[in-house]
Amino acid sequence: MNRRQFIQSAGLTAAATTVAACGREPPERPAGAPVGPFGRESTAEDVTRGMDLSGRTALVTGANSGLGFETARVLALRGATVICAARTEEKARGVCESLGENTTPSVFDLADWDSIVGAADLIRASGTPIDMLICNAGIMELPELEQVYGLERQFVVNHLGHFILVNQLLPQVLAAPQGRVVMVSSGQATRNAPPEGIQFDNLSGEKGYTPAGGYGQSKLANALCSLELSRRLQDQAATSNAIRPGVIPTNLGRHMPAWKTFALKNLGGSFTKTLGEGAATQVYVATAPALAQTSGYFFEDCNPIIAGGFTEDREMASRLWRVSEELTADYLPKAPAAAA
Ligand SMILES: NC(=O)c1ccc[n+]([C@@H]2O[C@H](COP(=O)([O-])OP(=O)(O)OC[C@H]3O[C@@H](n4cnc5c(N)ncnc54)[C@H](OP(=O)(O)O)[C@@H]3O)[C@@H](O)[C@H]2O)c1
User: Fold this and answer.
1) What pTM does this model have?
2) Which atom of ligand 1 is nearest to the CA of 67?
3) What residues line ligand 1, using a CB cutoff of 6 Å?
4) Sorting pLDDT into bands at 50, 70 and 90, what band is 14?
5) In 3D, which of 120, 121, 60 has the Cα closest to residue 95?
6) For the residues of 120-188, what is the DSSP string, one character each?
7) Mutational test site, ligand 1, from 12, 40, 65, max ligand atoms within 8 Å of CB
């Protein structure tokens, strides 16, 4: 059995798909979105080289680990003020201490919606416009069904928590000269989402749950949420785009069986990305001057792609927004900033 056969037989679907993609033609590009000079091997530092982001503010969720940490680090390196969001005071302060002066901690748990509202209140009270709202935090493939607020946990953390955050902070994003929302989705949004897309009749997971299906659905929700937000922002200077970072060994794999983690670490070198490469696309989409009017796209390797699946299904996106509003109604601002 060769390396590729092993990876495929090991069930590392994301990795295997990436292997299969190596050497293929460039992906299909949507019409209208600018294609830039960066690609798979560009790093977050590469895509921001020479940029001065001083005077701009970014909020990064999941800033204490993996791609979020690298994103916060590079934005701060280029002079942005970075609000580093993490689940605990210790983690949020820890990342700020390691990144230096231009950082502010923000503490909330995406599975505790009161904590999101509380943190958003503090940020709004500061009056700071948010130029970049990077919805990066996430969890993957919980082995067993877990529920919060009666809903499947990955959908709650990865999608609904960020949905509340975005709605709470939209006035700050709109107050920036050209605010940008970046939703960190995944290749699993197409590979592992349920065949019918979002399972609106099974958001609790009780009619059936698989770890990969739950993760795929939540990442499809990230893509659709960005798509609908871009529609709602169409008359504004603010934009919203989704991205998928590639395959990067981080703490995200903490729920994967040990043998899968071992295989990724030891056999994945040729198709996994470094942290710098993995964070490049979200940092590029958040900062590139060429993307000031680019909204509603899905990016991979620093360029827009047609990701397929349901990622461009506008009807599903509108329905998801409406259902998300109903599910989180008690935690949304009374006067929504994004018109229907
Ligand atoms: N790595 C990849 O190959 C890959 C591929 C595709 C997409 N992505 C996406 O990239 C994003 C970042 O992932 P990563 O690889 O950097 O993983 P990571 O190292 O595990 O970082 C995830 C971050 O999310 C935070 N988080 C988890 N649950 C949270 C909650 N309830 N409330 C607030 N924050 C929470 C984590 O905080 P704690 O440290 O406190 O747990 C951590 O800071 C995720 O959205 C993931 O789906 C990653």
Assistant:
1) 0.93
2) 16
3) 61-62, 64-68, 86-87, 91, 109-111, 136-140, 157, 184, 186, 244-245, 247-248, 250-252
4) very low
5) 60
6) HHHHHHHT---SEEEE-------SS--EETTEEHHIIIIIIHHHHHHHHHHHHHHHSTT-EEEEE--TH
7) 65
Judged by phi (left if over 0) then psi (alpha if -120 to 50, else beta), residue 327 lies in alpha
pLDDT tens-digit readout, 52-87: 999 999 999 999 999 999 999 999 999 999 999 999
* Distance from C-alpha of 152 to C-alpha of 318, rounded to nearest angstrom: 20
Helix (H, G, I), strand (E, B) or coil at 297: coil
Ligand 1 centroid, distance to 139 Cα (angstroms): 5
d(CA 330, CA 285): 31
Q: How confident is the model at residue 3 (pLDDT cuts 50, 70, 90)?
A: very low
136 neighbors 68 (Cβ within 8 angstroms)? yes
Output the six-digit token pair for 139.
């969890």
Pick the CATH number of 3-328 from 3.30.70.580, 3.40.50.720, 3.90.79.10, 3.40.50.300: 3.40.50.720
Nearest Cα to Cα of residue 137 among 164, 98, 100: 164
- What tokens does 244 get? 């998928």
Nearby residues of 72 by Cβ (< 8 Å), 6 or more positions away: 58, 60, 63, 82, 84, 95, 99, 103
The answer to whether residues 154 and 140 touch, using CB atoms and an 8 Å cutoff, is yes
